[in-house]
Amino acid sequence: MKEKSRKxxxxxxxxxxxxxxxxxxxAGGGIIAVPVLRRMGLERKQAxxxxxxxxxxxxxxxxxxxxxxxxxxxxxxxxxxxxxxAGAVAGTYIMKKISPVWLKRIFGGFMVYAGIRLLLK
Length: 121
Description:
Layout: H1 2-25, H2 30-39, H3 44-68, H4 74-77, H5 81-97, H6 100-120
Helix pairs in contact: 1-2, 2-3
């Protein structure tokens, strides 16, 4: 029973951390969610898919709070939504066909790119 409560505490702490990073950086919580889900025992593709499922309600909540606080106007965000949906569909289709090794490399490449971009700007 002690192990289960430890795992539940770790899960709750991870969720808080993922939500905090998402709210602070805008959907950056996936960078934390994938490694956490992998550590919890999910295979790579499952971890990526579950990270997206976890990020959806968190992103919706962040968007609502950003809208309520006046940080974003719907008219500014609206033009990006159709392309984002098309990209999500394409990414989901491609993830089914890509090997876990390449998925890891692509994810790592985006993380390195994002880190370098943040350091240089």
